Amino acid sequence: MSQLITGEKTPQQMKDMRECGKMLATIYDELKKSVTAGMSELDANDFVAKRIKDFGAEATYLTDEVKFPGVICISTNEQLVHSFPTEYVFEKGDVVSFDLVIGYRGMKTDSAFTMVVDEEPKGAKKHLLHATEQSLYAGIDAITGDGTRVGDISAGVEAVLKKAKLGIIRELVGHGVGLSMHMEPEIPNYGRRG
Length: 194
Prior knowledge:
Elements: H1 11-34, H2 41-55, E1 58-59, H3 60-63, E2 72-76, E3 95-104, E4 107-116, H4 123-141, H5 150-163, E5 173-176, E6 183-188
Antiparallel strand pairs: 1-3, 2-3, 3-4, 5-6
Helix pairs in contact: 1-2, 4-5
């Protein structure tokens, strides 16, 4: 994949995206501390909705081109990604992924994280969380400035996942953000350098 990473934004747009990203990171930090066995996915959704409102941001999943029935996607255990929040009550040891897009001053940021409820990850859960985090860092480390190609990032991610013997869902990709929650470039979790 030889696609160049492009999509320049104005200095003000970059400033607004940074602010939006800080809000999203703060919400995630608070959510990680709040999620516990006995809490439902809907409780987590309500917590996030309140924090988005407190920041004066917008819940993009409710306002953009796709209308979700919640402000955050919550995928528990075998659910892959982009699941709607339900009445399911978290149990100790559940593997839960949260995916949130928020908007601020017209700019969007999108991020996801995975955690284990009320226990330190061990065994396969620890392996999954560690390897996927390392694959993220490998992709980030592949960004060397102007001229970085999508294939460089994708190959870095893939190498870590293959070494960890984890599968890759080829239909799902990372992506750019900014004026919309899904922008170019698409960044697969597999690819060739260059």
